[in-house]
């Protein structure tokens, strides 16, 4: 089955999670006895869940890419983001519990506490990788408000673009306004015929020359 697994945006990180989880599971089986078998059993279960999530994310992305080569697969997926969030927290708690168990074993026999310490470190590394994958997915999610704002800016620059807002310009009015005074012809045949006077001005005093 030839699937484009490497096309996944987080392929290298998902692959690293699977590798570290497998190594951590092996170390957990080696650390089950004599100290704290319950703590490492829980960590083993969490590492298996980490492998399942990472493998499912990459597989479904590659399968969609193969079935619809002309379309981009839906990514990031909310279920994967939720899974990364949960695993980040619980693996960190599992690391703390395993570390306490390894520290208690260190007090009895130092040579027997080395393997549990490395097993606890595997949970910490997987937790950190899940946190990084979650952050990359949050950053990759499209921001609707930013997209709309960008569309408005493009429309304002080019006149007709996505989101451009155009307002009709007011038509010039041919009616006289207060800013355009009306010229009125006054006078008689005995006075300066055809003399123009602007309406709105104060009347001239007969005594003024």
Automatic annotation (TrEMBL):
Domain of life: Eukaryota
Compositional bias of kind Basic and acidic residues: 198-209
Ranges that cross the membrane: 12-32, 44-62, 82-103, 115-135
Region (Disordered), start-end ranges: 164-209
Keywords linked to the UniProt accession: Membrane, Transmembrane, Transmembrane helix
Name of this chain's protein: MARVEL domain-containing protein
Taxonomy of the source species: Eukaryota, Fungi, Dikarya, Ascomycota, Pezizomycotina
